[in-house]
């Protein structure tokens, strides 16, 4: 029997699901160091989470990357390296927002939405890194076709793996479907509008009663 994703159950498991994805990001950092697939995490966050949780996941992923980088992989303790770390965090957030926007635009085409969200996240992430390199004049010699192709391949493999993990998470009730998240938002908005209309009606009735009396 297939397990249906329950929004309430998934919400209660939300910290565990986010922790699992952060742990996966640590594994990627240990495996690829400076080539951590932030674009893949940005896309999967946009596809499977609310904006709040997506930004939380990407922020924790970035923080874990910095901790592992400086604490385990011995990144150089220089001002330039710290600054680039901050830039990576900001760019990862912007990539997540780009993927989220594309996800909304292609929400009626589920499979295409996944592909387009990933491409948007990767384009935003790499494009902003390239632009930042030009602005701070740190050199763009690493942005060769071969290097970008390697980074794209790493992110693609990571994204496919994260998609598979998210499917397992949805089946296990750990991760909510984004459709359910959107549905919950619509229900909450409808309830809010109903309560607001009810309040206005009650106030209008009270004023009418006062005038008549």
Describe this structure in words.
This protein has 213 residues and is mainly alpha-helical. It folds into 2 domains: 7-176, no CATH class; 178-213. It contains 8 helices and no strands. It has helices spanning 7-12, 14-32, 38-48, 51-71, 79-105, 110-135, 145-171, 178-212. The longest helix has 35 residues, at 178-212.
Descriptive tags:
globular; 0% strand; mainly alpha; 8 helices; 213 residues; disordered N terminus
Radius of gyration: 22 Å
Query: What number of domains?
Result: 2
Described by the principal axes of the CA atoms, the overall outline is globular
The level of helicity is: over 70%
Number of helices: 8
| Main sheet makeup | none
Number of strands: 0
Uncertain residue segments? 1-5, 179-187
User: What is the succession of H and E elements?
Assistant: HHHHHHHH
What gap, in angstroms, lies between the N and C termini?
A: 64 Å
Q: Please tell me the overall pLDDT.
A: 81
Our estimate of the beta-strand percent is: under 5%
Structural class: mainly alpha
Topology record:
Layout: H1 7-12, H2 14-32, H3 38-48, H4 51-71, H5 79-105, H6 110-135, H7 145-171, H8 178-212
Helix pairs in contact: 2-4, 3-4, 3-5, 3-6, 3-7, 4-5, 5-6
């Amino acid at each position: 029997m297939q397990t249906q994703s329950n929004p309430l159950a998934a919400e209660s498991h939300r910290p565990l699901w986010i922790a699992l994805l952060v742990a996966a990001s640590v594994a990627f950092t240990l495996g690829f160091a400076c080539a951590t697939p932030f674009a893949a995490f940005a896309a999967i966050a946009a596809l499977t989470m609310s904006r709040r949780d997506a930004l939380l996941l990407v922020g924790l992923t970035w923080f874990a990357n910095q901790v592992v980088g400086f604490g385990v992989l011995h990144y150089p303790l220089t001002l330039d390296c710290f600054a680039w770390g901050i830039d990576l965090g900001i760019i990862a957030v912007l990539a997540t927002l780009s993927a989220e926007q594309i996800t909304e635009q292609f929400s009626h085409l589920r499979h295409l939405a996944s592909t387009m969200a990933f491409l948007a996240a990767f384009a935003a992430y790499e494009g902003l890194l390239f632009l930042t390199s030009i602005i701070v004049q740190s050199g763009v010699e690493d942005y060769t076709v071969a290097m970008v192709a390697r980074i794209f391949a790493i992110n693609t493999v990571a994204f496919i793996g994260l998609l598979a993990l998210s499917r397992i998470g949805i089946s296990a009730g750990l991760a909510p479907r984004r459709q359910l998240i959107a549905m919950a938002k619509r229900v909450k908005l409808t309830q809010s509008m109903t309560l607001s209309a009810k309040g206005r009606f009650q106030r209008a009735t009270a004023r009418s009663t006062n005038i008549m009396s």
